[in-house]
From TrEMBL:
InterPro entries from the UniProt entry: LexA/Signal_pep-like_sf, Pept_S26A_signal_pept_1, Pept_S26A_signal_pept_1_CS, Pept_S26A_signal_pept_1_Lys-AS, Pept_S26A_signal_pept_1_Ser-AS, Peptidase_S26
Organism domain of life: Bacteria
Source organism: Thermalbibacter longus
Subcellular location: Membrane
Broad class of enzyme this protein falls into: hydrolase
Record-given protein name: Signal peptidase I
GO CC, alphabetical: membrane
Iron-sulfur recorded as keyword: no
Gene name, Swiss-Prot/TrEMBL: lepB
Keywords: Hydrolase, Membrane, Protease, Transmembrane, Transmembrane helix
Amino acid sequence: MIRRQHDATAEGAAAAQQASGRRSALWDIAETLLLALILFIAIRGVVLNYRVDGSSMEPTLHNGEMLIVNRRAYMHVRLAPLVGWIPGVNVEEDAVWYPFGPPKRGDIVVFQPPGNSAEPYVKRIIALPGEHVAIRNGAVYINGQRLIEPYLSEPTLWRGMTLDHEYVVEPGHVFVMGDNRNNSSDSRVFGAVPLASIVGKAWVTYWPPDEVQVLSTPAYAFQ
């Protein structure tokens, strides 16, 4: 009788231990899945995969290439609500602070274009808010100075025409163009792009594997 009770007790302990092990394993799986979900949401909030469609950015980007886009590159904070309440501190109502820096000339950006296009565009920032843009004799001039663009292989025309044109970029906007200047629908067609329409800054090309590159911002020169 004592032996049977001992055996029953041992079997019960083993069953309890086995059930506890199953619960522990299930909890570990649940923790792993939850962590993976949190990481996925966090990563998607920072980066975006983008597929280049078309040849407007050749020779820098090619049709079908896959990009990693930094969605937080131009994250900014309005300063007025942040520090405007401090006595003696005067901040303009539209002043903003960019922790990682504002958009720069030469940045390649993905943005929602004006019009009815359902797909974002990828272009290069050429002029910044308030700048004067002119196209003369196949070259781009910013505030009267010729912009040297080593990535171009053809002269820059305005809307496919040889006529000279000028444009002043509105506040809160940037002027964008494709590197393949004569095969690109860009700010020469639809005007400057609102900063609010920018999805993010193109960071790295990762596909195809033999064309992986970090997309750096050129150091421009003027003449």
